[in-house]
Design a protein that fits this description.
alpha+beta, Molybdopterin biosynthesis moea protein, domain 2, Molybdenum Cofactor Biosythetic Enzyme, Chain A, 4-stranded antiparallel sheet, 11 helices, 20 strands, 28% helix, 28% strand, MoaB/Mog_dom
Length: 340
C-alpha cells in the first residue's frame, strides 16, 4: 500500500475502511476497504478529514477482487445460470428458471484447490426454482495475481462450466395402477392422485391412466400399449414385493425392457425398479411411494423429467445419503436425502 492525496486517488483501490462520525447521528463505515475511489467521493473524503489515504497498488500482474469475480463468474455459469453484481469480491450464483440443477463436482474441487478464491454450492441433481440461491464465489484477498485467475480460466475453458440448469420436458406419462383389490373396487385408488401430483410438479402430464388386476400378461400388455400410444414415461404402481401375487417386476421384464435396477439403496423406496423399453423409461413403484412423503422415486423422477438417462451407477451411488429421516417438517430437497 502507499499513501496518496485524496484528490489524486481517483480510480485507485482503498486499502482500509474509512469511518465517518456525525455526533449524535451516525458512526460507521463511509467507504469500505476495496472501494474504487470515484471523482464524486473526493468532497466527502475531505469533509471527514481524509486528505491522505492508503491505497492498494494494482499493477499489470494483479486484479481487483471484483474484476476477478466477474472473470470467473462468466466461466462457471452455464446454461440457465447467472451471477449477481460483485460486491467486495463476492458474486451469488442464481438460476434463470426452474429445472434440474447440475454441478460439476470435479471442476468445483479443482477451482477450490487453487487457493485465494472459494466457491461454495448447494447439492446438485435436484429441482431448483428461479430465484433460489445456488452458491457463491469469492476472492479472498483484495487483489489477486492474474496468473492464478488465468489458471482457473484455463481449467474452466477446457472442462466446461460448473453450473447448469436443465429445463424439464413435458413428458407424456402413462400411469398403470395394479392391484386386484383396486381393480375390483374393494378399496379406493390412493396411488393415482399421488403420482399425478408428483408428475405435474415437473411440468409433465398423465395422458393415459388405467387400473388393472394382478395379472402378468395384462400388466405387460398395458405397458406395451402405453408405449405404442406415444408414452414418453411409463409408471407402474404396486405389486413390487416378493409376494406370489406381486407380478409387476415380471411383467416389466416380459415386455423385453432392459432392467437397469430392481432395488435401490434408498429408504424408503428400496423395491423401486427402473427399466427402459426401446429407450422409454419404465418405473415400477413400491407401495411406500403412496404414503411416504419422499422416496427413491422423488430422487430419480426429476432427472428423468429433465431428459437424463438413468444408469445403474446412478442408482447404486444413492446409498450415500439414501436414508430419509422422515423429519416432522420435511425440507426436501433442502436436506441430505439423496445427496451423494
Amino acid at each position: 500500500m502507499k499513501v496518496v492525496k485524496a484528490e489524486d486517488a481517483v480510480g485507485m483501490v482503498l486499502g482500509h475502511d474509512i469511518t465517518e462520525i456525525v455526533p449524535g447521528e451516525f458512526k460507521g463505515v463511509a467507504f469500505k476497504k476495496g472501494h474504487i475511489i470515484q471523482e464524486t467521493d473526493i468532497e466527502k473524503l475531505l469533509r471527514i478529514g481524509k486528505e491522505h489515504i492508503y491505497i492498494f497498488e494494482i499493477d499489470e500482474n494483479t486484479l481487483h477482487e471484483d474484476d476477478a469475480a466477474i472473470a470467473i463468474g462468466n466461466l462457471i455459469c452455464g446454461e440457465g445460470i447467472y451471477f449477481t453484481e460483485p460486491k467486495e469480491g463476492k458474486i451469488n450464483i442464481m438460476p434463470k428458471y426452474k429445472g434440474l440443477l447440475k454441478i460439476n463436482r470435479e471442476v468445483l474441487d479443482e477451482i477450490n484447490d487453487l487457493g485465494d478464491m472459494i466457491l461454495a454450492t448447494i447439492h446438485g441433481n435436484r429441482l431448483i426454482d428461479e430465484g433460489h440461491l445456488i452458491g457463491g464465489f469469492r476472492v479472498i484477498p483484495l487483489t489477486i495475481e492474474k496468473e492464478k485467475i488465468i489458471v482457473a480460466e484455463k481449467i474452466l475453458k477446457e472442462k466446461g462450466p460448473i453450473f447448469e440448469v436443465k429445463p424439464f420436458k413435458k413428458l407424456k406419462t402413462a400411469l398403470i395402477i395394479t392391484g386386484s383389490e383396486v381393480y375390483k373396487g374393494r378399496i379406493e385408488d390412493k396411488f393415482g392422485p399421488v403420482i399425478e401430483r408428483k408428475v405435474k410438479a415437473f411440468d409433465s402430464e398423465i395422458f393415459y391412466k388405467t387400473i388393472v388386476p394382478d395379472e402378468l400378461d395384462i400388466i405387460k400388455d398395458e405397458i406395451i400399449k402405453s408405449k405404442n400410444m406415444g408414452g414418453e414415461l411409463i409408471i407402474v404402481t404396486g405389486g413390487m414385493s416378493v409376494d406370489p401375487d406381486d407380478k409387476t417386476p415380471g411383467a416389466i421384464k416380459a415386455t423385453g425392457a432392459n432392467i437397469v435396477s430392481y432395488g435401490t439403496p434408498v429408504l424408503p423406496g428400496a423395491m423401486l425398479l427402473v427399466a427402459y423399453l426401446d429407450n422409454i423409461p419404465v418405473m415400477g413403484l413400491p407401495g411406500c411411494v403412496m404414503f411416504a412423503h419422499t422416496t427413491a422415486f422423488d430422487l430419480l423422477l426429476p432427472r428423468i423429467c429433465a431428459g437424463e438417462k438413468i444408469f445403474r451407477k446412478d442408482i447404486t451411488r444413492l446409498g450415500y445419503g439414501g436414508q430419509c429421516l422422515s423429519c416432522k417438517v420435511c425440507t426436501f430437497p433442502d436436506c441430505h436425502f439423496g445427496k451423494n
